[in-house]
């Protein structure tokens, strides 16, 4: 007896979007279901070679599609791994991926863009409800006795019960909506498979009926009347079967046989993406190691790019036999946006995941593949518009490689692009070529937003010297840039570091000026006390009254601490007073300690706010600011 279950809340939302508003390209439902069938065949294919329990299984992998244009149904059947009752609940009733909510939040309302996300999120099965008002899934797991049926109209509930099915595998029947019955057509199905699933590595057979004519034998009456019409024929329906894809693993074919469109079509099916890839890298290696790789660089970032539980985009095969799509060690984590295939001829078919982690063959493939991919990205960088498109999607994650991939550190540094106070999207090479002769280092400033960094008083000191400063506002910058050390034998330095400040020098404050400012310096120290470090004078600034210098300042690191529920160690800022500023020119002759104290508190609080922070004593700051305005209004 079938039992009813409710869909997970996220699936209910997803189904509502799919049925009512999401897909503009509904034919993709067939691509998704065929892709799922292919995955099921991959999994069983691996088990028949690696698991003793399945080695004796009679297994000839295939996908069969049939339709009934009168009833308006389409059936997709595979003889893959199959599902039992718990599998049906887990895979078709609950979205286990924690990224589902991210998916729902990323929907833009643009149907074309949103539809491209479906397959990436691993929820392609539900696209069936765009064209069907009822879906029946019958499945029997390989090696088990019982078969189960899953039935739903996509309106919040589904039923699961036992059913009769002799062979293992899964059969999905779609009862098409009235206005979608055109999909139950030989020509529609052949066209969709040719467009999206030509290079599925297993044969796809289409079953259809065709009217055929046969000669009709003469009957007695005809002979009696002397009429002999040998052209008379009778018609009947004949069931036919036709393979509608090449079933050749595209990566195994010679590049000379493949066209650009072949790669694009394969990528779209493989990566569940509606957009063409930016680039692809197809490599066949022979010699001590024999392997083939086919990698794609997508146009848009996968939804889970910045999630710890991201899904690997690379599948591992051994002699065309699928091994795993869940090994995050096949490429460095900073290349996790890459989609593709690694097919080795040297690994054993029964290789375990534990062995994969320390396998020298895979380590060599990984190293060579990483270099190939970085080389292709470097080639893309020659086209600035194309590279801007790429870097906007993947620049942040590429920076992660600077943290751990020492082997490719120099290559990665060449690929980095930054903004400065003067220019946008500049390379370190371009920065270094434009450095004045007297400049000793490449300077950068860290902060949470570029808008704030551009107005940093500290930046003004370097700008007045004619020194360009890189504005680094990505979270990852604070972690990796201090570790980079140098580029092309030129040091990289944070402008708040003592080394950087020493390099620009500050000889403009005379002893006479220092004496004039003694009351102000003393007043700042007494008023701000433990909130600050040292107080000094500078003549290198023009606009800002003072700057805050935090030695080894790293706001991004502080933000990371906060995300982990911890407080980063506080660094007391040093204060540099701009002796040229009008405020201090008027204040330097004052002996009013109370006035100096108020100015110290207000300027210090304002400087903190300008950097995106806030005064520790916000209430006191606000009270003094209000009092100052009242005083001004009463004048």
CATH class of the largest domain: Alpha Beta
Proportion of beta-strand residues? 15-25%
The low-confidence runs, each spanning 5 or more residues with pLDDT under 50, are none
Mean of pLDDT: 86
Q: Indicate the CATH topology of the largest domain.
A: Heat Shock Protein 90
Instruction: Let me know the CATH homologous superfamily of the largest domain.
Output: Histidine kinase-like ATPase, C-terminal domain
What's the CATH architecture name of the largest domain?
2-Layer Sandwich
Kindly provide the radius of gyration, computed on alpha-carbon positions and rounded to a whole number of angstroms.
34 Å
Strand order of the largest sheet: 1-6-5-4-7-3-2-8-9
3D shape: elongated
The level of helicity is 25-40%
As for the number of domains, it is 3
* N-to-C span: 88 Å
Number of distinct helices:
25
Structural classification = alpha+beta
**Number of extended strands:** 22
State the major sheet: 9 strands, mixed
Q: What features would you describe in this structure?
A:
The strands form four sheets. A nine-stranded mixed beta sheet has the order 1-6-5-4-7-3-2-8-9, with helices on one face. Strands 10-11-14-12-13 form a five-stranded mixed beta sheet, sandwiched between helices. Strands 15-17-16-19-18 form a five-stranded mixed beta sheet, with helices on both faces. The chain folds into three domains: 3-211 and 236-243, Histidine kinase-like ATPase, C-terminal domain (Heat Shock Protein 90), CATH 3.30.565.10; 250-380, Ribosomal Protein S5, domain 2; 511-550 and 569-634, Up-down Bundle (Four Helix Bundle (Hemerythrin (Met), subunit A)), CATH 1.20.120. It is elongated. Helices cover 38% and strands 20% of the residues. By secondary structure, the chain is an alpha+beta fold.
